[in-house]
Amino acid sequence: MNFNIKITLEKSQEFAYFLYEKIKEFNNEHSIHHLEARKKGAVKPIQIIVTDENEKWIGGIDAEVYWDWMEIANFWIKEEYRGKGLGGLILEKAENMAKTLGAKKALLTTFDFQARTFYESKGY
């Protein structure tokens, strides 16, 4: 078996897509859950949008529900609105909506570094 290994520090979208498609193909063949999640309507989006009095976005949650899970991909609130209970309120609204869509568990994948103190203060 012959092969070559190349290391690059430049991102190739074409190569990333190749890997994504091959992993998706494998998962579809070996996991009914992955195959089901890819059917139209299987992944249900939830967005909680918070605006100020001028209808300008000041934060919110972007999430999806699938496989009995709610995955929160992005959760952010403008700094001057933090510490006033708004984060807990919109998280509760997202959790309640996710439950009505069949979610039993939650997964947080947001990369906002300030989120850790929020979740720790809430006991998560």
Which helices and strands appear, and what pairs or packs with what?
Elements: H1 13-30, H2 32-37, E1 44-51, E2 57-66, E3 69-77, H3 86-100, E4 105-108, H4 115-122
Parallel strand pairs: 3-4
Antiparallel strand pairs: 1-2, 2-3
Note down, in words, how this protein is organized.
The chain folds into 2 domains: 12-42, no CATH class; 43-122, Gcn5-related N-acetyltransferase (GNAT) (Aminopeptidase). Helix content is 38%, strand content 25%. The protein has 4 helices and 4 strands; from the N terminus they run ααβββαβα. A hairpin with a 2-residue loop joins β2 (57-66) and β3 (69-77). The radius of gyration is 19 Å and the shape is extended. The chain starts with 12 loop residues before the first helix and ends with a helix.
Sheet/helix structural class: alpha+beta
- How many individual helices? 4
The shape, in one word, is extended
How much β-strand is present in the residues? 25-35%
Low-confidence stretches: none
Separation, N- and C-terminal Cα atoms: 49 Å
Which sequence of strands runs across the widest sheet? 1-2-3-4
Radius of gyration: 19 Å
CATH class of the largest domain, anyone? Alpha Beta
CATH superfamily of the largest domain: Gcn5-related N-acetyltransferase (GNAT)
- Assigned CATH architecture of the largest domain: 3-Layer(aba) Sandwich
Structural domain tally: 2
